[in-house]
Write a structure and sequence with these properties.
heterodimer; A: alpha/beta; Rossmann fold; Alpha-Beta Plaits; 2 domains; 12 helices; 13 strands; about 35% helix; B: mainly alpha; globular
C-alpha cells in the first residue's frame, strides 16, 4: 500500500522571453514571446507510508515543481498522481487536512503578531478543539525547543526560531504526509541539527511520510535512507543512499601521513593523487584494488598514519549531476 | 460553539490584534481619507454665493456623512492579493481547507473596528467646531443608512476583489483599480452630490454600482429623498452579479495560476 504514487508525471509551462536592452524591451512590450519549459518529464515513483525520502537535484531540476504537483498547487500536464488516496489537484478539504507543504523561503505566520495568534487561526481552520490545540502546541514546542518564543512577535524571532515556528504551524493539524522544500535553508548548524532531530522524531512518533528537498547533504544523510535524484526534469536515480554511493563512487579516499615528503611519481603508482600538503597526502584508490594497494603502501613507504574513508556525499552527488546519469 | 462561529471569532480576534499593531498608521489612514472634508469646504463656500439645491449646511452634513461612510467602506484587498500572487505567498494559503478570501474579509472587518475610535474622534471634533451642522437622522433613515453602508462595503469589496483576481493574468492588477477609481471618484458622490449632476447623467448613473457605494447610504443618513427599495434592489443585483463573475474568474484564475507554475 503506497501513500504517494506518481506515474509518468509531466509538467510543461511557458516562460516569457525578453532580450536585454531597449530594442528587446520594446519588442517584448509589443509582442510577447514565450518558450515552453519541460520542468518535469515522465517522473514515476512510489513512496510507502512512514518512509523518509530525500529529493535531490540541482537548482531548476524540477524538485519544487514536482512537490507542487504532489500537493495539488499545480496540475500535471500529463501523467497520474495520487497522494493519501486522493487526486491532489482537486484540493478537497479531506486531502488538505492530510498533507502539509513547508517551503523554507515562504512564510505563513503573520509577521507582526506572536506565532501563537497564527496558530490559533490554523486551529480554527483545521477544526482542532481548544484542548487538542493546547496539547499539540505544548508537545510540538517542546520537541522544537520553542517554549516561551510563541508569544513574541514573529518579526522578533531569529531565523532558526522562525523556521521552527513555521514547522509548528505546518504540523499543528498532524498531517500524514509532509512535503518539505529546503526546510533548513539559511539556518546555522545548531538550528539545522535541531530541525533534523525534530523531523526524525515526528516521523517516528506519528509514522508520517516525509519527502524532503535540501541542498544540505547532512539533512539527507541524517534523515533519509532512500533518495530520488532529479536532473533536468527527469528522475535519474531512485534507491538507497548507500547504494548510490557504492555505485557512483568506485573509489575510496586514502589519507596518508609519511615520515618523508614523497615524490609525485612514486605516489602516482598507488592511485589518483588528490592533494599533497607537505607530508600529508590524499589518494583516490579503486575499491577492487584497495586491499592490495594499501598493503603495498605500508610495505614500500614509511607511513605514520593511514585512514580510509568514502568520498564526501556532496562530491558523489556533484559527479552524478555533472554527468547527468547514474552509471 | 459551531465550527463556523469559532472560525469567525478566531479570525476577527486575531486580525483585530493584527490591525491594532498599526496604531499610528490607523490615525494616518483616517486622515488620508479626508478628501470629503476638503470638498465640504469647497461646496459650502460655493453654496453661499451660488444657486444650488443644497444649502451650505446641507453640504456640511452631506460631506461629513461621506467621510463616515468612506471610513466603513475603504477596501484595499487588491494590493494585498496582488502582492500574494506576485510573491507566491498565495500558494501556502491555497493548501489550507478554507478559501483565502476569508483572511482578507477578516482583515477588512477588523480594521473597521480598529479605526472606529479614530474616525469617531474626528467626527466628534467636527461637530464641536461646527455645532450647527449636527443633526439627528430619523430612526428609519439611520437604520437604512447603516444597512446601505454595510452593503456598500460588501459591494466595493466584491468589485475590488474581482479586479484583484486579474493578478493571475496581468502583472499589475492595481492598474485596473486605479482606472476604476477615477469613475468612482466622480460618480459615487464623493466629489459632489449626484443632485448637482445633469438629469441625463443621473438617469444613467443610477443603474451603475457607483452611486450605491457612497451617495445612496449618505442620502439615507442625511435625509435626501431617494428611492429606498429600488436602491437596495440594484445593490443586491450588482452584488450577486459581482459574486458570480468573481467565482467564475477565481476558478479560471486558479487553473491559470497552477498552469504557470504557482
Amino acid at each position: 500500500m503506497t501513500i504517494i504514487t506518481c506515474d509518468h508525471l509531466d509538467k510543461v509551462y511557458p516562460v516569457a522571453l525578453k532580450e536585454p536592452g531597449l530594442k528587446g524591451t520594446l519588442s517584448h512590450f509589443f509582442q510577447r514571446q514565450h518558450r515552453l519549459v519541460n520542468a518535469v518529464q515522465s517522473v514515476s515513483f512510489t513512496i510507502d507510508p512512514g518512509e523518509v525520502v530525500g529529493f535531490l537535484g540541482p537548482n531548476g531540476a524540477g524538485k519544487t515543481t514536482t512537490l507542487k504537483m504532489l500537493t495539488g498547487l499545480i496540475h500535471p500536464s500529463a501523467g497520474q498522481v495520487r497522494v493519501a488516496g486522493q487526486i491532489p489537484f482537486r484540493r478537497s478539504p479531506s486531502f488538505l487536512e492530510k498533507i502539509t507543504l513547508v517551503m523554507g523561503q515562504k512564510q505563513q505566520l503573520l509577521w507582526d503578531l506572536p506565532a501563537l495568534d497564527s496558530l490559533k487561526i490554523n486551529a480554527a481552520v483545521y477544526n482542532i478543539s481548544p484542548r487538542d490545540f493546547q496539547y499539540r502546541v505544548d508537545e510540538l514546542s517542546e520537541m522544537l525547543s520553542l517554549a516561551g518564543k510563541l508569544t513574541q512577535p514573529v518579526r522578533k524571532l531569529s531565523l532558526g526560531e522562525r523556521m521552527k515556528a513555521e514547522l509548528l504551524a505546518a504540523l499543528l493539524h498532524r498531517p500524514q504526509v509532509l512535503f518539505l522544500d529546503e526546510p533548513t535553508l539559511g539556518l546555522d548548524v545548531n538550528a539545522q541539527v535541531s530541525v533534523r532531530e525534530f523531523l526524525r522524531e515526528y516521523n517516528q512518533r506519528y509514522d508520517a511520510t516525509i519527502l524532503l528537498t535540501s541542498h544540505y547533504m547532512a539533512d539527507i544523510t541524517a534523515l533519509c535512507d532512500r533518495v530520488l535524484l532529479i536532473h533536468q526534469g527527469q528522475l535519474i536515480y531512485d534507491g538507497a543512499l548507500n547504494q548510490l554511493m557504492s555505485r557512483f563512487a568506485p573509489y575510496r579516499e586514502v589519507k596518508l601521513e609519511l615520515m618523508q615528503p614523497p615524490d609525485h611519481a612514486t605516489l602516482k603508482q598507488y592511485g589518483e593523487v588528490e592533494e599533497v600538503l607537505g607530508r600529508e597526502i590524499r589518494l583516490l584508490v579503486r575499491r577492487e584494488t584497495l586491499t592490495h594497494t594499501v598493503s603495498q603502501i605500508l610495505a614500500n613507504l614509511q607511513v605514520l598514519d593511514l585512514t580510509i574513508t568514502d568520498p564526501p556525499i556532496e562530491e558523489i552527488i556533484r559527479r552524478v549531476f555533472q554527468s547527468g546519469k547514474v552509471t | 460553539m459551531s465550527s463556523v462561529l469559532r472560525k469567525i471569532k478566531t479570525f476577527l480576534t486575531v486580525y483585530y490584534a493584527y490591525m491594532l499593531e498599526y496604531r499610528a498608521e490607523l490615525l494616518l489612514w483616517v486622515l488620508a481619507n479626508s478628501l470629503p472634508l476638503i470638498m465640504m469646504g469647497v461646496w459650502s463656500q460655493a453654496a453661499t454665493g451660488g444657486q444650488f439645491s443644497l444649502t451650505a449646511l446641507d453640504f456640511a452634513r452631506y460631506f461629513i456623512s461621506v467621510f463616515i461612510v468612506r471610513q466603513f467602506t475603504i477596501v484595499w484587498v487588491i494590493w494585498d492579493f496582488e502582492n500574494e500572487v506576485v510573491e507566491g505567498k498565495l500558494s501556502p494559503r491555497l493548501l489550507q481547507p478554507i478559501d483565502p478570501v476569508w483572511h482578507h474579509v477578516a482583515a477588512h472587518v477588523s480594521e473597521r473596528l480598529a479605526r472606529l475610535p479614530f474616525s469617531a474622534g474626528l467626527v466628534i471634533l467636527f461637530f464641536v467646531l461646527y455645532p450647527q451642522a449636527f443633526w439627528w437622522p430619523s430612526p428609519l433613515g439611520l437604520f437604512w443608512g447603516c444597512l446601505a453602508t454595510a452593503l456598500a462595503f460588501i459591494l466595493r469589496f466584491i468589485i475590488q476583489y474581482t479586479f484583484a483576481i486579474f493578478a493571475f493574468w496581468v502583472e499589475r492588477a492595481t492598474a485596473i483599480e486605479q482606472l476604476w477609481f477615477l469613475f468612482y471618484l466622480f460618480l459615487s458622490g464623493m466629489i459632489a452630490p449626484l443632485d448637482l449632476f445633469p438629469d441625463a447623467v443621473r438617469a444613467v448613473v443610477v443603474w451603475t454600482p457607483f452611486p450605491y457605494l457612497i451617495y445612496f447610504p449618505v442620502s439615507l443618513l442625511v435625509g435626501i429623498p431617494t428611492p429606498v427599495t429600488q436602491g437596495f434592489v440594484i445593490m443586491l443585483i450588482w452584488c450577486s452579479l459581482g459574486l458570480l463573475i468573481n467565482r467564475w474568474l477565481w476558478r479560471r484564475g486558479i487553473k491559470h495560476y497552477s498552469g504557470m507554475g504557482a
